[in-house]
Amino acid sequence: MIVLVSYLILVPLVVLFYSSLKASTTELPFNVEGFSLDNYAHVFGSSRLVEVTVNTTIYVIGSLTVALILSVSLAYLLERTDIPFRRVLAPLTLAPMAVPVVVMAIAWALVANPANGPLAILVRQTLGLQIDIYSLPGMIVVMGIFGVPSMYLMIAPAFARLNPELEEAAAAAGAPLMRRLRLIVFPLIGPAVSAASMLLIVVVLEGFSIPALLGLPDQIFVFSSLIQHSLEPPTGAPNYGQATTYGVLMLLVSLVLLLIYRRRIRDANRFKVVVGKAYRQNRTPLGKWRIPIFIIVALYMVIGIILPILALLWTSLSPYSRPISWEGLTDLTFGHFAKILTDPGLGVVMLNTAIVVLVTATVATAMSVWIAVAAHRKSFRGANLLFESTYLVFGIPSVVLGAAVLFLYLYVPIPIYGTVWIIIVALVTRFLPRGSRMIQTALLQLDEGLIEAARVTGASPATVTIKILLPLLRQALWKCWLWVFAQALGELPIALLLTSADNRTLVIEVWDTFTSSVNYPQASALAVIILVISMIAVLLVNRRGASEKEA
Length: 551
Prior knowledge:
Elements: H1 2-20, H2 38-44, H3 47-80, H4 86-94, H5 101-112, H6 118-127, H7 136-161, H8 164-172, H9 177-188, H10 190-206, H11 209-215, H12 223-231, H13 240-266, H14 290-317, H15 335-342, H16 344-377, H17 383-389, H18 398-411, H19 420-444, H20 449-456, H21 461-472, H22 474-489, H23 492-498, H24 506-515, H25 520-550
């Protein structure tokens, strides 16, 4: 297992650095003799580096700003105030987590494109403003909204745990609400906000689907889309040296941010304010602003979450791409779904997709259990180091990991290139860190008494694992499996780089139908199929989580 984990995690990184030191353009790195820094000299001397760096910086800062404002505002309102209908608004805030990012990007392209997007038409008719989703601001808004759920999950508990006595004391001294927020609340949630921000920056940096679908039509490149464009240009030959060099630079930035993130988590204990039985949670009354603030939040939910999905459903049921209208209700059709489901070529695509997601979820969960249990029990010297080494994958953007795996299996004599197994290998590598940490969290909640009792009676390690440990971890295993299943279903950049005629998956069909064929209704129908499968998986995760809490 040590050899396997090291091979999955470290070998692609070595291949990536190795390839960046080869003076290759259209030649594969392994076919070039000697080492040089020509790729780095070319990249740092190129005017494109400045352009892409500026675009990426604006994209990251803008997306973080949008996500931060929305997530902090929502977390405070839903956790600390008496805003009405909290039980409805909170699940809606997390709804984008059930939508694969490629589906979200397509939904926004449909709802806000300047030609017939209903949101673009509404803004143009009511405010006289032109909006174009195929732009850097459009990318920022979509990525910011997509990042809200993950930030909310990290920030909301910090708000919920704040001792209200601190605010009450300030209020008794005459401090108004905004002053209390600025001097008490926001400083105390600072570690949670900064940790969530660092993690989101890494997610934005490595994200590919939104920049590719919304930026490439107008040739707006960030690092992730430039790497993929260098490897698979629509015209001309690929530039392998440039792609790997940009990948190394992107990887180094991501790893630095992850180190900062881990440091912020480590220092978070200094800000604990919930102590003993004196703690109680009181909600701040919004007074006359209660209804207006609720309307603003509900408007965000409708425009940011419901309307894009509605546009996706509308387009999938329309005979051609058109705005949402009452007149169009008369000729809605399931014809695109029927065409997809009766297409003989789709059977192979669906089979490939099923193999990829089922095997990836099973293998990643099994390896995650072994890694987490070995580290938890300290089964051998270096077990914890093995667990921590999986953290390196957090810093590898999907497109970079896909490129490293691509080069590796073009050279290594293992005949999986062009098959579904190369995609499975890359996806298992990608999801090992999250999976092992899900299992580790569950292990920390288990009492070791049952396991120790079984050992005292003479049970073998295998018996203890099979009869006691795995049944106790059943909920966590199921949750981990479903999470990996849903993520693998919508993982675009890895599948895009490693796809061939024989291993096409559903997400690749969506990409090609939307970008190459420009058949928006059929692409929307395919996206709806992915969305439904993903939502079922997420609902099952939530249901298991609720059952676990009740138990």
